[in-house]
User: What shape does this take?
Amino acid sequence: MKITFPRMGTSYIAIADLFRGLGNEVISPPPITKRTLDLGTRYSPEFACLPFKILMGTYLEGIARGADTIVSSGGVGPCRAGFYMEMHRRILWDLGYEVQTITLEPPKGHLSDLVQQLRRLIHVPLSQVWDAVRFAWKKLELLDIIEERAYYLRPRELVRGSTTRAFRKCLSIVRGAKDPEELAEAKSQVEEILASVPINPEAVPLKVGLVGEIYVVLEPFANGEVAETLGELGVEVHRSIYLTKWTRENAFLDFFRIPADRDAKRLARPYLDEMIGGHGIINVGETVIYSRNGFDGVIHLAPFTCIPEIVAKGILTKVSADLEFPVMTLYLDEHTGKEGVRTRLEAFVDLIGKKREKEQGVAW
Amino acid sequence: MMRIGIPSTLAYYEYFPFWDVFFRELGFEVVSSPITTKAILDWGVKHTVSDACVPIKLVHGHVRYLAEEGVDLLFLPRMVRVAPKETFCPKFLGLPDLIQASINNLPPLLSPRIFLRYGRMSLFRICGQTANSLGVGPLKGLRACAKALDAWHAFLRSLREGMTVAEALGIRERTREALRGPRLALLGYPYLINDPFISANLLALLEERGVQVFTAEMVPSGDLKRLSRRMRKNLFWHYSNRAVWAAMYYLDKEMVDGVIHVTAFGCGPDAMTGKLVELEAKGKVPFTTLSLDEHTGQEGIITRIDAFVDMLVRKKAIA
Assistant: This one.
């Protein structure tokens, strides 16, 4: 059994370690390229969303490298993503690739299903399982920290591109860490590298929140590298979704019925009083939070034809007008190009810069 | 007398007979918007969030019509769940909020949350609460609900006897003569297929070509439920599930010579539904998709169905 899985941002580094630690042979998902997307688009339904098409391509490339089993998450709707593993399987089988699939459904009610699926992935004694999970989790946390730090450094850097270079270096160091000791060593190395990026400590950059559908927020290829572009335009980016935080809230706390994201949901209620699936309701609430915390604007990322995000966009328009808070939605699909995204971001940054100038009377 | 407005789109095509009787029994006047017109569509297109599908644009237009008509109350139920393990499309779930965010000067909305956790029991409860909120008392609501259910079951019976929704609602006349052309499963949202304007008169066009039409609503619900167990995992959405199960039903029984999936441009759930139906039909009967939006012209539809129907006729002649 050779397994592959979806690639989303930097998480693949830790997830590959996890599956390896559980005793599987892993075909790590290759970097997403134009070719991946073209391949995925060719075999996907026309109006499937961008994440569906990218995953389709990733799976096909994984299969070409020898993978015979695909692991992915499930879901209970109403967002389409919960059905993707099943849809991908049917399309792949129709193409003649009889791959096995392991779908990790959220542990709502059917814990036995989840346990059964997990057992197919575990080929080591239980004691080692704990170690593998812990190691992967630590790695995931470190990856999230690196990304968060990069968002802080980029608008303040003195040499354009130095943060991004440091960021890539950090990733390759973390990827190389094979055990907890090496990871601890990697952590201190990473801190050193990031601390050595020369910055202007007195800069007060514009601040922009990123909200939207989780896949396109986390995967730079899917969003035209919006975070990097904003950073290099001198904007500090804040993201509401990090994979470690998201997993803790949606898989762990939810299982014990501990409500997460309470604030975001409460603040969204005057505008949207129903779980519409995906990240629809959270995005509305997070936007309100950003506007209260002194941010200059919000970029809302949505895959074209994403159902929950279209509803969210309709409502964000009103939120934006009510709070006098700039919000821009970027719809993303297979025709989205990095330069097109850059043009729109430049216009947005100009606008929020002028707004701040007017309000505070100082040039940023 | 208080006038309650019901937009003639979306859930109208499944539940209007119910709500019509319900509100009339409670002593209200029911005003429904006319079947879609060019003006309704144009207004909706102009005022709806970009990237919404055409049915959502239509409902904005219909709501606007009723607001200008001066109704006292606008009935826009939040359709969440009517059967276990599925919901309506997220756009239905957020519809009252979306409408309120995009249209100004609306009459007050009456938007009960339709979540039938305990089936019939929940329905009675919602009806009682709705009647109470309208100031007529919950007991009257229960009685009106019972009457409304009778009317709705009569509507369902005419569907099972082979009427399309448009015929059962009186939007179209039922054909008298027997049709001899190919038998087609016409699957998709009832609010697209049965709306003569947005579908470019699809049902009439098919009838002119002698096509016998079979829709998802004609399949007995027990059979649909049985077929749902054959899926490894079912879809999450009400109309999508019915389209997929109905496809399996008609294909199993070899009742149709071809399948047409009618969808709205950019429809999210249908990207999954269409592919599933296509895979079900593969190797059995020909399949095609008709995608509708605000730019759909009748000529384009005619070209496509002519090509498909001709192909079915020839295929039959060869066999």
About this structure: Chain A touches chain B at residues 45-49, 52, 74, 76-80, 82-83, 86-87, 90-91, 94, 103, 271-278, 280, 304-308, 310-311, 313-315, 317-318, 331 (CB under 8 Å). The mean pLDDT of chain A is 89. The two ends of chain A are 56 Å apart (CA to CA).
